[in-house]
Amino acid sequence: MSPPSFDEFYLSSRQRVLRYVYAVNGDLQDAQDVLQEAYARAWQHWGRIGDYGDPEAWVRTVAYRIAVSRWRRTKSALTAHRRHGAEPAAPAPDENTVALVTALRGIPEDQRRAIVLHHLAGRSVAEIAAETGVAEGTVKARLSRGRQALAPLLRTETTGRRHA
């Protein structure tokens, strides 16, 4: 007798395995996530797993291990939180940052990327050229055009904010 197709296996076993994972785990949404990951792994290796005497046992075992791994990560995060406290909240961006980001949205993407890499990330023209895969002359042109396009947008943003 040949093994069932993965689709047949999935359709015939998913509810039983979901009930198992949910009972072990106690959280239906998490159980569904775990189950999805376990079946994805089974599908990737179905040529081998489909020949097993009990492929459902393999999926249950994998699902259990995934759930345990998640529990351990959660426990470690909780322990770290208790020991060190919550990470401090990032401060809200200031008015100038909001104006700059809004203005940057108004220029073409290639110019915006060059401007941000050069002026905010401190990258040289040569480094930007290497990172973006274009010639240095192209980077220089994008910087020049980007600055020209950005200037009036920044004036509009800052003057618009003052009068708002």
Explain what the structure shows.
- Helices cover 79% and strands 0% of the residues.
- It folds into two domains: 79 residues, Rna Polymerase Sigma Factor, Chain: A; 69 residues, Arc Repressor Mutant, subunit A (Orthogonal Bundle).
- The chain is mainly α and 164 residues long.
- The mean pLDDT is 88.
- The radius of gyration is 27 Å and the shape is elongated.
- The chain is built from eight helices and no strands.
Which residues sit in consecutive blocks of at least 5 with pLDDT less than 50?
Answer: none
- Give the SSE string: HHHHHHHH
Mean pLDDT score, rounded? 88
Q: Gyration radius, to the nearest Å?
A: 27 Å
User: Helical percent range?
Assistant: over 70%
Could you name the CATH class of the largest domain? Answer: Mainly Alpha
Largest sheet: none
Shape: elongated
Task: Output the CATH topology of the largest domain.
Answer: Rna Polymerase Sigma Factor, Chain: A
- Count of domains: 2
Find the count of extended strands (DSSP E, 2+ residues): 0
